[in-house]
Amino acid sequence: MARILVVDDDPDITYALSLFLEAEGHDVRIAGSRAAGMKELESYDPELMVLDVMMEQPDDGIAMAQEIRRAGRKLPIVMLTSVGKVTGMSFGSDADLVPVDAFFEKPVPPAELLRKVRELLEKTEAGHARR
Amino acid sequence: MNGLARRVPLVEQELVRSVDWLISLRWLAGAAVVLGAPIAATVLGAPLPAARLTATGVAILGYNSGLFFILWWLRRRRAGDTVVFERFTRLQIALDWVTTAELMALTGGAESPVAVFFLFHIAIASLLLPHKLGFLYVGLAPGLVAAVAALEYTGVWPHVAILQPPRHQDPVFVLASVSFFAVACWVLAYCCMSIARRLRRRETELGSLYDGVRDIASSLDLDEVLERICQAGAHVLGCRATAIRLLDAAGSQVEFAASWGLSQDYRDEVPGEMARSRLDRDTLHDGVTHVRDVSSDERVWHPERVREEGIATMLSVAIPGRTGSLGVLRAYGSAGHRFREDDVEFLQAVAAQGGVAIEHAKAYRLLADLDRDKSRFLRMTTHELRSPVRVTESLLLTLSGGYAGTLAPEQAELLDRAQKRLHSLHALVDDLLSLAAGKASLEAAKPQVLDLAAATHDAAERFRTVAEEKGVALVCRLPETPVWVECDPVDLDRIVGNVVSNAVKYTKEGSVLVALAREDGRARLDVTDTGIGIPEESLSHLFQEFYRAPNARAVEESGTGLGLAIVRHLVERWRGQVTVSSREGAGTTFRIEFACATPAGV
Questions:
Q1: Where would you find the membrane-spanning parts of this chain (chain B) (predicted)?
Q2: Do B428 and B477 sit in the same domain of this protein?
Q3: Pairs of CB atoms within 8 A across A/B
Q4: What is the percentage of chain B residues whose pLDDT exceeds 90?
Q5: CA distance A60 to A38
Q6: Complex-level ipTM beyond the 0.90 threshold
Q7: Is A15 on the interface with B (CB under 8 A)?
Q8: In this structure, are B154 and B195 located in the same domain?
């Protein structure tokens, strides 16, 4: 299946994610911070990334996604948020601001996330095939 | 000041009144001359040129008519323009003096008693007109008298002899009359001017005190209040500078809190420790200290530095507070400035008002700080409370999804129950926090003009799937054109979402109708369902926090009872109204109303 990088500073979330992503047959690598995530991005070269929006800084995830896009990487990014409506932050309307492919609010529903991952990977493969 | 009408100083009010009075008096004077001259000449046989006197009297009445109309015009067109009234008064005085000189010449020159009439105008001018060049102006009167006497003495003008023998060419008599008259003029002017100056000064002080006190109390911002106290103090006393030094909570430091007219360097260099600042210590202890000369007063810290700042004298009073002095209000005078006894009273009055304003501002600042801390605390707790609940839910979802191995039926059942309870906790935490955050962040909300029709559509569509799964028809009746209301987008979404969600949740069969209409400048959103309804006794409690109607509990066990409390809070926050009408077993209508707004750019 695919190489997936999970970047989140919460070990419980990364544990749960790696359980169901691996159950689906993916190869999962965990990074606990933005810096570690950037390093893995180079060495592990993932095909898809699951990224938490808040790490040490409240917008680390967004900044990291922007950095990845600026570097010209097009791999699909799934962003996890725990902010939601209470804080008044809403995403999705501005693709330039938050250049990711999908949002999931915690708690992460495994089946839906897996479906989304499958869909995004297929799209990438189709893109590759056309080229 | 502050856009309020300028208070007209007493002297200006008096000036306008006296202009009126002068004109009235002049009618009498003119008439007296016109009638008096022939009577005196014929009946009493006084040796007077009656015809020329009568002509002068007519001239007086003539120019008085002119002045009368000018005054009438000024009153209508230039009311309140003091400078114009001052000039008008000077014009009258000049005309009167010329005619008085003429009358004097016609009634005996240096021998004439008419010269006394000059004194009226001198009193009026000295009391009511600005004192710039005042003595020079007053000098015109003896000048005219001297000119008449000189012209008659030299024989240029003919003398009307009322005394026998005539004395108009007696140099001693002429010199004595003129000089005594001049001295009388100047002494009178000096007396009137000094009285006027004192009264004006006192009036300015009272006016400044009034303005200052009004301004001091009109702000709740501590820095602004302190600055206003300084300004008021400097203005009232007309001194070089003022400063406020506030006592810290421990009573061991006095720090510059505000100043007016002092350099930053000076502020930085003055010691803050009470132990070193004897002047502050004494002021706080005695209430008042007066340093008449900084060079020779041993209480003054570093006299050279103080003199370098241009300060020669200091007057300090304590700023009273409810439980003791708050600090020191000090006025600084430059060389030559002398603080007077009543300055102490004025400075104390400013300090007393200032003390009240400072305490109010401090209390307000404390409240604002507390409020900010509360908001910050809420924001932090939002994350801290929500995060573990959501992570645990994620873990359990992974478990129940079978990604950690297949579960036995009993395990799955236990897990399902745990997840349900956890979900309730999740909803409770969200609701609690949104209610608390909403209450705390009132000032953070930015009003926007939003389309209620679009917001209603978006919110209602989220529940379409749930409704369809239950077999409940969700019908939206929305206007084609936008319905603009002033709200915050997140708040508006939560208001509509909560009401529609409730309608769908408590309707087993039938329909939910979401209808929006405009009526009399109000936007009216009705959400009507054919659900379980609300028992009559529950209606009055419905919007209370944690209240749940008994039949609602039967439908869904895990509701938090906060949804409608949030709705009401949010609706009222945006100056709207939410009402409910219901019949148990038949259905419910929630009505939300907002005032229609005008979108930007229209």
A1: 27-46, 53-74, 136-160, 172-192
A2: no
A3: 62
A4: 29
A5: 12
A6: no
A7: yes
A8: yes
